[in-house]
UniProtKB/TrEMBL annotation:
Record Pfam families: BioW
Subunit description: Homodimer.
Cofactor annotation: Mg(2+)
Pathway: Metabolic intermediate metabolism; pimeloyl-CoA biosynthesis; pimeloyl-CoA from pimelate: step 1/1
Keyword Ligase in annotation: yes
One MF annotation (Gene Ontology) recorded for this entry: magnesium ion binding
Function: Catalyzes the transformation of pimelate into pimeloyl-CoA with concomitant hydrolysis of ATP to AMP.
GO biological process, one term: biotin biosynthetic process
EC number, as in UniProt: 6.2.1.14
Name by which UniProt lists this protein: 6-carboxyhexanoate--CoA ligase
Family: Belongs to the BioW family.
Keyword set, alphabetical order: ATP-binding, Biotin biosynthesis, Ligase, Magnesium, Nucleotide-binding
Length: 238
């Protein structure tokens, strides 16, 4: 069955306010467009003066992949979180501690760092922006009641992204924490370890935040194309 990508972005005076993306069946397209418009107008960051909704038919089949299973680490403070993340990365790269330092040192990136597992070098073409993962949605979002999806949580969004990311063979692991000063739980994820939630990755009130992908490839062009463009629907955990 043909599916459609629906993307929304809103801005005011040329600066970005919010964005959203869904992959849905044709009959859901009108409701999803309406819901995105409503959400864009109600966004806490302010009233947009421009809302763009783009609907694109997806050519061919969309890959369905399972969600990573969720686990929880117990970390009392950022020092324990650092240890948990470095322990998780250590079997995959000799540069695990450098990956942590790099991730916790960047600011205001829109995308993710690509971190070469063998050398610790950065592979993303634009270091200020990073690589942005798009073209994914929760498979449960398709169906009779698109409005049930509108309350999707931060964890669901992160799990969908992490599951798409982990699925690529050149991807060894991901580490993420939000730049939202009030949200201090991050995660480390991979095909082997699943999605491990890591509390207290940063102190409350900190504006640090970012994403880092530990990769095993010398030429990331195919990987970047997959992350940016290959449509993926993420189903229930296996
Ligand atoms: N692709 C790549 N990188 C991204 C993307 C994307 N689509 N969206 C955000 N980033 C990067 C960017 O550098 C942000 O600063 C950083 O990730 C954090 O983004 O289970 O909310 O959207 O409770 O603030 C984790 C939930 C929530 C953990 C992460 O990230 C849990 C979150 P945010
Ligand atoms: Mg954020």
């Amino acid at each position: 069955m043909a599916l459609f990508s629906v993307k929304m972005r809103s801005s005011a005076l040329g600066s970005h306010i919010s964005g959203a993306e869904r992959i849905v069946e044709e009959r859901e397209v009108p409701d999803v467009c309406a819901a995105m418009g409503t959400r864009a107008l109600a966004h806490g960051k302010g009233k947009p003066d421009s809302i763009t909704v783009t609907v694109t038919a997806i050519d061919g089949e969309v890959a369905h992949i399972p969600a990573l299973p969720i686990r929880e680490a117990h970390c009392a403070d950022p020092a324990e979180a650092r240890e948990t993340v470095i322990d998780a990365l250590a079997p995959l790269t000799p540069h695990a501690a450098e990956a942590w330092e790099l991730l916790t040192g960047v600011r205001d990136m829109r995308g993710a760092i690509l971190f070469h597992a063998t050398t610790g070098a950065r592979l993303e073409p634009d270091h200020a922006r990073g690589v942005r993962v798009t073209s994914m949605d929760a498979a449960t979002a398709t169906g009779e009641r698109p409005e049930t999806h509108s309350g999707k949580t931060r964890v669901t969004d992160a799990l969908v992204l992490a599951s798409k990311v982990a699925h690529h063979p050149a991807m060894l692991a991901e580490v993420c924490f939000s730049d939202d000063p009030d949200y201090t739980t991050g995660y480390v994820a991979s095909r082997e370890m699943g999605y491990l939630r890591v509390p207290n990755m940063k102190p409350v009130g900190s504006e640090m935040g970012g994403r880092l992908f530990v990769v095993d490839t010398d030429d990331p062009a195919d990987l970047i194309d997959y992350l940016e463009h290959t449509p993926v629907l993420v189903g229930e955990a296996k």
